[in-house]
Design brief:
This protein is of the alpha+beta class. The protein has 18 helices and 23 strands. Helix 6 packs across helix 7. InterPro entries: GATase_2_dom (IPR017932), Ntn_hydrolases_N (IPR029055), PRTase-like (IPR029057), PRTase_dom (IPR000836), PurF (IPR005854), PurF_N (IPR035584). This is Amidophosphoribosyltransferase.
């Protein structure tokens, strides 16, 4: 669904390339393909082999990187970032990549995820004399690297990474080398590709398709890649690696044309819809999905149930970010501006409305009301994921239980609150079966914390807002 309407947002996306004369231009296109992962800020840092130069700003990729701006970014290596602010909040200073200069040279960092022990590390570093320039948890790694005590950068990075807890996919670049690191649980997606003789790395494989790169493989949990003039070198900085990739990447965040660990996102979402139809047989006239991320699941539900899929809701693609507002009243007005029911499709019909998740419930209530006002005789809401009952501390902006309607209300209570005739969520078991991962164990290599409350990492007290318990 529309992230800005629901309040369910990914923190960011990263893209990097090394060994290409048009590194900045390719990074521009890569970031554009990842724009859905963050619309609040973006940046690119390039290396020409002698120095690092960067540009960043608050806004969309096309707004910040004009033709004039791109002319100034020349180099053979680049890392880029699109951001949705969670940890550290907004502000220009927190837009990434972060770029640091010292007597020993430059260092650029781009990060997707959230460090649950960032506050503890920051307090420790400040007590030792560090002065932070941002409120971003990403900056913690820069200070840990600088204090590493080893002569080689890769050794300082290897020494620093095990101190971090939580979700992180890091791109690290100096004038002469490019490093990639994924946390020991692989909570965020990260893939490696080739474009001619150049190596590329991206949060999603859809970025490879845009630039014409060939997918090589997924970055392994606990892996550190170093790319320099001698080629690519891989080593494991953590041997305690157990995959727990965020399930919401399959359900909601990633683009349908991306593949995550060999599974196409669109295919996974269709299977989620098919599984819903098996678990929830409903008598109805039409199936519709909430644009855009729920369309695949709605198609799957329609195929399995035999009930025709129809475009019962239309997304207005010409409403800008001006309407992304935090207040309740403006959020509901935003739904009205961005989604419209198709009266000719839903009037006089029993409608099955497929959505990927319910967070606060306000958007679902508004959409159900719109469908009924357009003449739907019944609205049956089916959700292609289990109830989100627990906060996420790994880079999704649901860090308090008060934000989650399913943490305080039963399914029947939620049904009444949103005004649906019926409401059904997919089971955890059905969700795992539909996605089709099989990495072993009861979680099949997925993080299920927001559904089950079982977190793959330790959660530090500083990561939990006042009054919350994990």
């Amino acid at each position: 669904m529309l992230a800005e309407l629901k309040g369910l947002n990914e923190e960011c996306g990263v893209f990097g390339i090394w060994g290409h004369p048009e590194a900045a231009q390719i990074t521009y296109y890569g970031l554009h393909s990842l724009q859905h992962r963050g619309q609040e800020g973006t940046g690119i840092v390039v290396s020409d082999g002698q120095q690092l130069k960067g540009r960043k700003g608050e806004g969309l990729v096309t707004e910040i990187f004009t033709a004039d701006a791109m002319e100034d970014l020349q180099g053979v290596g680049a890392i880029g970032h699109v951001r949705y602010a969670t940890a550290g909040g907004g502000g220009y200073e927190n837009v990434q990549p972060l770029l640091f200069q010292s007597q020993s040279g430059g260092l650029a960092l781009a990060h997707n995820g959230n460090l649950v022990n960032a506050d503890a590390l920051r307090n420790q570093l400040e007590a030792q004399g560090s002065i932070f320039q941002t409120s971003s948890d990403t900056e913690v790694l820069a200070h840990l690297i600088k204090r590493g005590g080893f002569s080689q950068l890769r050794d300082r990075v290897k020494n620093a990474l095990p101190m971090l807890k939580g979700a992180y996919a890091f791109l690290i670049m100096t004038e002469t080398e490019f490093m990639v690191a994924l946390d020991p649980h692989g909570l965020r997606p990260l893939s490696l590709g080739r474009l001619g003789d150049a190596y590329v790395v991206a949060s999603e494989t859809c970025a490879f398709d845009i630039i014409g790169a060939e997918f090589v493989r997924d970055i392994l949990p606990g892996e550190l890649l170093v790319i320099d003039a001698d080629g690519l070198h891989s080593e494991m900085y953590s041997m305690n690696s157990t995959t727990a990739i965020c399930t919401m990447e399959y359900i909601y965040f990633s683009r349908p044309d991306s593949n995550i660990h060999g599974i196409n996102v669109h295919a996974a979402r269709k299977n989620l819809g098919k599984q819903l139809a098996k678990e929830v047989p409903i008598k109805a006239d039409v199936v519709t999905g909430v644009p855009d991320s729920s369309i695949s699941a709605a198609i799957g539900y329609a195929e399995e149930s035999g009930i025709p899929y129809e475009m019962g809701l239309i997304k207005n693609r010409y409403v800008g970010r001006t309407f992304i507002q935090p207040s309740q009243s403006l959020r509901e007005q935003g739904v009205k501006m961005k989604l419209s029911p198709v009266r000719g499709i839903v009037e006089g019909k029993r409608v099955i409305m497929v959505d990927d998740s319910i967070v606060r419930g306000t958007t679902s209530r508004r959409i159900v009301k719109m469908l009924k006002e357009a003449g739907a005789t019944e609205v049956h809401v089916v959700i292609s994921s289990p109830p989100i009952q627990n906060p996420c501390f790994y880079g999704i902006d649901t860090s308090t239980r008060e934000e989650l309607i399913a943490s305080e209300h039963s399914v029947e209570e939620i049904r009444q609150l949103i005004g649906a005739d019926t409401l059904t969520f997919l089971s955890v078991e059905g969700m795992l079966e539909a996605i089709g991962r099989n990495d072993g164990g009861e979680t099949r290599g997925q993080c299920l914390a927001c559904f089950t409350g079982k977190y793959p990492t330790e959660i530090y007290p500083q990561a939990v807002p006042a009054g919350q318990k994990c």
